[in-house]
Structures are given as C-alpha cells and as structure tokens.
Amino acid sequence: xxxxxxxxxxxxxxxxxxxxxxxxxxxxxxxxxxxxxxxxxxxxxxxxxxxxxxxxxxxxxxxxxxxxxxxxxxxxxxxxxxxxxxxxxxxxxxxxxxxxxxxxxxxxxxxxxxxxxxxxxxxxxxxxxxxxxxxxxxxxxxxxxxxxxxxxxxxxxxxxxxxxxxxxxxxxxxxxxxxxxxxxxxxxxxxxxxxxxxxxxxxxxxxxxxxxxxxxxxxxxxxxxxxxxxxxxxxxxxxxxxxxxxxxxxxxxxxxxxxxx
Length: 261
What we know:
Blueprint: H1 4-7, E1 17-22, H2 37-47, E2 51-54, H3 56-61, H4 63-66, E3 70-74, H5 95-101, E4 105-110, H6 117-134, E5 138-142, H7 156-168, E6 173-176, H8 183-187, E7 193-196, H9 204-216, E8 221-224, H10 226-229, H11 234-247, H12 251-258
Parallel strand pairs: 1-2, 1-8, 2-3, 3-4, 4-5, 5-6, 6-7, 7-8
Helix pairs in contact: 2-11, 9-11, 9-12, 11-12
C-alpha cells in the first residue's frame, strides 16, 4: 500500500513540515504547558502546525481537536523520571493500533552507539517491516548514543550516520538533532530530515536562526515541543516557525511575528 496520501497529511506541497511534539508527559514530571490540552491543541492548530507527534492516550481522547492536523503516533516510550536507570525504549503500541486510531504516521526512537544498540535497531527494523505491510509512514528519531549521550558525541559525522541507518532500515522521515555542518546529514539521507527541538531555548531569535540554518542545509522542517507549547504565546510561536518553514521569512521577521507586530 502506498504511503503518499498519509505523508501528504504531514508535509505541505512545498515538501516541508512543522511537527509539534506533545509526547513529553508520558515520561517527564514537569510539563505545565501540557496541562490544558484542549487549549494548547487549539493554539497550535490556529498557529499553523502541520502535524502533531503524540501518545495513544492524547490521540484517543482529543481526536476531534487533532483532526485538523496530521497525526504521528509514538509507539515506544522512554523510561519515566521515576526510574533512576535508563535503558532501551520498549514498544508499547503497534502499527495496527495506529491504524485503528487514525494516525498518518508512527514514530520510534533509536540511539545508534548506545549500549542497547542491537535492541534499539531491531525495534526500528521490526516497526519498519510492519509499516511496509500496512502502508504506514515511519518517523525514526535518531540520536547518536541515545538521549543520555554527551553533546560531544553529536558530531555531524555521527548524526549523519545515525540518519543514514534509519534510511537503510526503511524510515520515511528522520528526526535528528541539529549540529554544525548539517548539510552532511541531509546530503547522505535520502528521506526528509526534520530537526528535533530539544530543551527550551531562552532566546527566540537564536531558535529561529537554528531553524533557518537547518532549512538552508537541506532539512525539511522541525519537530519541536517545549519551545512551542512551553512558549508564553504558543499560537504566535507556531505561526513564527511556520512562517520560517513555509514562507522563508528571516529569523528577525519571525521575532516580529512572535511579538505580534
């Protein structure tokens, strides 16, 4: 089954996308920005988000509000903040679950180079096979060494390898951290690459400059959470990011949008 129709719910005709990640409360303690879900979903939708990356529970309970955007369902889960140890992210849901809930794509995380690399990559390959069987697009979140790895491990060479591994295992979209020299990542990856947002930024201008640099290096968009729903004005933040991605406005112009000017 062809994946084109589902992918068109995530990417606009320009081939770019603004994905807002809303899966943090499944493992993090402090996510006040996600407490009022109907309100934040409405704000993000009004701002022009193309797709939401979220959990089974949110997708199930807020299906009507989410219907105006593409839906990417996370199938696996990180260790919660109640667990002092870290380890591989197990699968909680299946591609069939995603189909039943009306998802347009599924997402799993893998950390090439981490201690449980064989488990993580086997999981990714298994989900990729399921996705091929059902015509479901797969977003692979690839972080060299895993999320607990030192920042020094995230070189352009390592991120490029992680992204390429995802391609080789059948991913349709790669979500990977932004690093200097990102063109090395996008040029060796033959599926669309979106950058992950990571921790909340203090400076909106610096965030927008990162997004602009990523796009100029061949990225096809972003998948951000805390920097969007954690912003003082999520609608304006979403609109500013969407303007950079789809209208090619400058970081400085995006700041003016964020300030409502």
